Amino acid sequence: MSQTVFELMSLRGRTALVSGGAGYLGLEICRTLAELGANVVLASRNGEKCVAAASQLTAEARGSGRIVGRALDVLDSASASDTIAWTVKEVGGLDILVNNAWSGNKNSWESIDDKDWTYDINMSLNSVFRMVKQAYTHLSERRGVILNVTSMYGHVAPDYRIYDGKEFANPPSYGAAKAGVLQFTRYLASFLAPYNIRANCLSPGPFPHEPTQKHTAFMEKLSGKNPLNRIGQPHEIKGAVALLCSDASSYMTGQNVCVDGGWAVW
């Protein structure tokens, strides 16, 4: 008997671990999973921020699952292993892994140095390998799902005309790392298929943080780069997250879903 779309999207009884879960888009990802009924672990290096964000989502009473915050350093294999083991033991298995963590400097081509390049690749690309490597045996036990949050700049280049090379610089390492994640996800979709694990990407377009939104001239340039002529709001990734993390996408793997206002069509 065919399931309804509501049944397909239900995450009741499943557990999700989200790196960078208390961030600008990370919190909305966690909110989506919670609303669908999942147990959700928000994790980042700032454990206190994650605990506070988990309390916030719990107070909203958006879902029926357990929501907790925990410290995680995705640059450290031991931390990744400990967090995943804790999630499995204390929260109840692992069904969904969302790799969303990011941090780095706003370097231009002129300002970036070897140290920053290496850090950015480690943070945005190597960390995804690190988390998946530690998690895949647990995911295989639950027909698990991997969602890697990438970027439009993983498959299109930044337009140098909208970046001044200073305050709104776009580091070359960022797009290079995200492009690596896209290809790594395709690899995972192929080689983890025998383990009954699906892997997909979500590529957000222009979702600038609130402080950036105060800069009118830059925002006009950024908004004008896509057919919808505006930036995205955090809640506008919820549909893609719900699709890619649930059985509604059970026949999708190795795909990249762009939520970018049509940026990449021009």
How would you describe this structure to a colleague?
The chain is globular and about 50 Å long. Helix 5 (114-140) runs parallel beside helix 6 (172-191). 42% of the residues lie in helices and 14% in strands. A seven-stranded parallel β-sheet has the order 3-2-1-4-5-6-7, sandwiched between helices. With 266 residues, it is an alpha/beta fold. The model has no long low-confidence stretch (mean pLDDT 95).
Question: How would you classify the helix and strand content by structural class?
Answer: alpha/beta
Globally, the shape reads globular
Name the helicity range: 40-55%
- The termini sit apart by 42 Å
In short:
This protein is α/β, with parallel strands linked by helices and 266 residues long. It has helices spanning 5-9, 26-35, 47-60, 77-92, 114-140, 172-191, 210-213, 216-223, 238-245, and strands spanning 15-19, 39-44, 67-71, 96-99, 145-149, 198-204, 256-259.
Give the secondary structure arrangement, pairings included.
Blueprint: H1 5-9, E1 15-19, H2 26-35, E2 39-44, H3 47-60, E3 67-71, H4 77-92, E4 96-99, H5 114-140, E5 145-149, H6 172-191, E6 198-204, H7 210-213, H8 216-223, H9 238-245, E7 256-259
Parallel strand pairs: 1-2, 1-4, 2-3, 4-5, 5-6, 6-7
Task: List the defining traits of the structure above.
266 residues; alpha/beta; seven-stranded parallel sheet; 9 helices
